[in-house]
Structures are given as structure tokens and as C-alpha cells.
Task: inverse folding
């Protein structure tokens, strides 16, 4: 992808020992962003992580179906107007890319490329890993057309933790994450990323509103929390 335009970055040290970071991203040209995201998704070089040809064939088939579905959703976006489905892919992928390019965390494909669709709300949207601390990051993305969407992303993460959906993701992460990171995640040593669409709200106000929330306070017990606001 092209270089991300990061318009704000904060390390919220007052919430230690949890490592809390905040990024704000301006996608600028939406059409170019959608094109960049599709190019990134179509790069299936991650299939080389699998040892067996039958795994590569199976995961390539899953990924192709997902990519075709995403492309169809993106094709319906005209004149910089994006649908809810397309918006969540944009927020997911830009947040995932931020973790890779800005923090040098592991490049793990979007969950929907790797995982099989599950009934109901499927689970986390993207994952990464802090290479230094061996901390798996479980990410959830929300797009809401009319408001800044942290009030959708944060409670969803708390619900997923309660439903143990982070633990259910661990087998799918085995080809990408270190054994140490997976063991640590299974024991509760893990991190989360809440990515959300943002409007024109001032960054200080967004951070102040988030940090007053009960779900934010709940997530502070984990090793990391990475907040990613995407201006859409």
C-alpha cells in the first residue's frame, strides 16, 4: 500500500502498566485507498507460511472467495460514498497496516481471508503480534456513517472476550504467530486494537470520551490497547 497519512499519534502513558496508543489516519483519496486495499488483499504470498500443499490450496480457495466478495462491495462505492460493509474493510485494513508499518508488528492477513465464516457474529477482524513482547493483538473494526464509532468497537471487543472468541482464533493464527505468543495469549497475556471510523471530532475529545468509558477501563487489564481512528 501507499504510505499511510498518520495525522496524530499519542502514547497514553497515564494508563500504564497497559501500553495504550492512539493513531489517527486520513485516507485522503477514497478511490485510491480502495484500490490499494484490494491490491494488498490479492497478495497471497502469506500462503507460503503453510507447510503442506493441501493447506495452501484450501486457504487460497477461502481467500479468493473473500476477495471476490470484497471487490464486489468496493465496486458499489461511488463518488467517495462508502457502504457500511466496505467501510469496515477499509477501517480493518488501514488499522492492520498501521500496526505493521508504524509499530513493526507482524503482518497477518485479515481474519476473513484466513478463517471460515462462522454463524452469528464471526469474531475479530484482524490480528497482529508485537515481535518484541510476543503479544498477540486481536483487532475489531467498526464503521458508522453518522458518528465516531468507538462506542461500537470497544463494547464489541469486551463481548468477544466474554465469548472467548479471542481464544477460538488461536488455531488459525498458528501459521503466523510465534508459539510463545500463542501460549501467552491462551494464558491471558494479550492485547487488543479498537479501530473505528471518525468524523471531524477533535482528537483530544475522542480520547477523553474513550478513556471515561467502562469498556476502556476493562481493557486496561491487558498488555496493550491500540486505538485507531480512521477519518471516513
Result:
Amino acid at each position: 500500500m501507499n504510505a499511510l497519512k498518520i495525522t496524530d499519534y499519542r502514547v497514553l502513558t497515564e494508563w500504564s502498566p497497559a501500553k495504550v496508543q492512539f493513531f489517527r489516519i486520513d485516507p485522503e483519496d477514497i478511490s485510491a485507498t480502495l484500490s490499494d486495499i484490494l491490491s494488498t488483499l490479492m497478495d497471497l504470498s502469506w500462503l507460503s507460511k503453510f507447510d503442506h500443499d493441501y493447506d495452501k490450496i484450501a486457504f487460497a480457495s477461502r481467500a479468493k472467495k473473500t476477495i471476490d466478495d470484497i471487490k464486489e462491495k468496493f465496486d458499489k462505492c461511488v463518488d467517495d460514498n462508502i457502504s457500511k460493509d466496505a467501510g469496515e474493510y477499509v477501517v480493518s485494513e488501514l488499522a492492520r497496516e498501521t500496526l505493521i508499518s508504524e509499530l513493526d508488528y507482524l503482518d497477518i492477513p485479515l481474519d476473513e481471508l484466513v478463517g471460515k465464516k462462522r454463524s452469528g457474529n464471526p469474531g475479530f477482524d484482524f490480528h497482529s503480534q508485537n515481535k518484541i513482547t510476543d503479544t498477540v493483538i486481536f483487532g475489531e473494526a467498526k464503521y458508522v456513517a453518522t458518528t465516531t464509532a468507538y462506542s461500537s468497537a470497544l463494547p464489541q471487543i469486551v463481548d468477544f472476550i466474554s465469548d472467548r472468541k479471542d481464544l477460538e482464533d488461536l488455531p488459525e493464527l498458528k501459521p503466523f504467530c510465534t508459539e510463545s505468543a500463542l501460549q501467552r495469549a491462551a494464558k491471558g497475556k494479550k492485547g487488543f486494537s479498537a479501530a473505528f471510523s471518525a468524523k471531524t471530532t477533535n482528537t483530544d475529545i475522542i480520547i477523553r470520551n474513550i478513556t471515561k468509558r467502562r469498556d476502556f477501563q476493562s481493557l486496561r487489564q491487558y498488555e496493550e490497547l491500540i486505538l485507531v481512528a480512521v477519518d471516513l
